[in-house]
């Protein structure tokens, strides 16, 4: 039990508690042209990841985000990967090499990234079921680590 508490505390330290104010809106289209609004995911914990294919740490962490998504399949959890202003053809080429089971959204003018204060990539936010940002992490992270998964599972409960 103490080991679990220590692991959860370690994961919480990796994920910085959010103190940047209200959750900005997020309303973008995916690669297939379908609209996604953060409000549509109310009741789920949502990982919002701002990334680009030219960003090496972004590319490196994408498989661990997919492993986290797969590990939490069937739970009220979703991943929204927001690509910054790249052509869909470039994104599709990357996804052909690194397939993922979550929505990839297009922030064509980077206005959403700016609203979310995503000034460094990758920038990842964990949204609680109530639609409020709970944590942020700047830079690469192995999202499949058990201590990170435990923090997210606590929000799901």
List the helices and strands and how they pair.
Blueprint: H1 2-14, E1 16-17, E2 27-30, E3 35-37, E4 45-51, H2 56-71, E5 77-84, H3 88-97, E6 103-107, H4 111-115, E7 123-127, E8 133-138, H5 146-156
Parallel strand pairs: 4-5, 5-6
Antiparallel strand pairs: 1-8, 2-3, 2-6, 4-7, 7-8
Helix pairs in contact: 1-5
Overall tally of structural domains: 1
Helical element count? 5
According to CATH, what is the topology?
A: Glutaredoxin
* Overall pLDDT: 92
Which regions are unreliable across 5 or more consecutive residues at pLDDT < 50? 1-12
Oligomer: single chain
Derived from helix and strand composition plus strand pairing, the structural class reads alpha+beta
User: CATH homologous superfamily?
Assistant: Glutaredoxin
């Amino acid at each position: 039990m103490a080991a679990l508490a220590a692991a959860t505390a370690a994961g919480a330290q990796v994920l910085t508690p959010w103190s940047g104010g209200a959750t900005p809106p997020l309303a973008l289209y995916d690669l297939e042209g379908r609209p996604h609004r953060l409000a549509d995911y109310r009741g789920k914990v949502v990982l919002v990841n701002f990334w680009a294919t030219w960003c090496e740490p972004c590319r490196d962490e994408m498989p661990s985000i997919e492993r986290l998504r797969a590990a939490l399949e069937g739970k009220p959890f979703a991943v929204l990967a927001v690509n910054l202003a790249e052509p869909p053809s470039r994104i599709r080429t990357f996804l052909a090499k690194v397939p993922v089971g979550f929505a990839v959204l297009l922030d064509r003018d980077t206005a959403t990234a700016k609203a979310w204060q995503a000034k460094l990539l990758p920038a990842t936010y964990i949204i609680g079921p109530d639609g409020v940002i709970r944590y942020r992490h700047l830079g690469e992270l192995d999202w499949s680590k058990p201590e990170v998964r435990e923090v997210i599972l606590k929000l799901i409960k």
